[in-house]
Amino acid sequence: MNNKVQEQLTLNNDVVLRNRIVMSPMTTWSANNDQTVSNAEVNYYGARAKSVGMVITGSSHVQENGVGFANELGTYDDRFIPGLTKLAGAIKTGGAKAILQLNHAGDKALPQFINNGDVVSSSAVPALETPFAPAQTPRDLQENEILQVIQAFGAATKRAIQAGFDGIEIHGAHGFLIQNFLSPHYNQRTDQWGGSLDNRLRFAMAVVDETKSTVAKYADEKFIIGYRITLEEPESDGLRFRDTEELLERLIDKNIGYLHLSLGDALTNHSRVNDDNEPYIEKIAKLVNQRVPLMAAGSLNSLDRMDAALNSGLDLVAVGQTLVANPDLFSDEPVSLTLSENELTSINLPKTMFDAVKQLGKQGVFNFKFTD
Which residues form a coiled coil (predicted)? Predict the structure, then answer.
């Protein structure tokens, strides 16, 4: 049992991961108040790098107005490079590949951290309240601003390279800006950035092209570019699997380093709009057909469930909450989702992160149990 999770995986660019477990990107709410990397974050990621093949950081915003969480990492300025260098070093010292997630929160950005509260998106379509962001109506981006965002992803990629990261992950999921453009509900534009599926895909593809161009200039073929995806949206006119299929094909055509599906339950989730009970991971594994590595996150909270996901067609399993509570998945201690404030030091969990997940747990966002 649990043999497959410990197998090595060679990516398409010949980078070797020592096992199939990836630390899923999950915000820490623990950057310094100036959005630089904190010592607590360095210790947190470093401790969890010791039992996984790859670590993906929580989201970092590539523009000042793209911040999606309190005390989130910034990557929009060179002043962030020294802290990012420490973070990459801690992850790599633990033996894992270090991936920096790049994001713009779009209509889910936090106005209290943005100059004049100027929240932007593909279109001025009202965004619903979430546990992380308020209900708000963003301003639609102008053409020159769209190009600036694309360039910002490239500039942040360069900073990741300078800081020593092994790659970046483009956050195209969770209703943030890239998904705002892809969504037929949230993208009501009538120019080249909206309307047809081709036009709605244009922004995502431009971001991928910009990051790949940056890597070609400043790194080599060993630098990884991954892409995180939400497959469908709940709105009646929202993102559908047929849209996502085309996105996946185009990403594969661009030889993306890996595809990362964000799910609630990786083993059981299936299309919510079609009479089709085939789990997403099995359906997409057939579509991808081993052309690029496929990864998914979602309730993979035991080694047995991780193995089951790998046997269902995934190449990698992304693990979030389980690693928060269990820095070493292969220790002799049983895997648990229980957190105690008395154990924060021993598991290298920042107090600000503990407080945030405890509060959000009351809203059903997380599955942790708390003993005090």
Answer: none
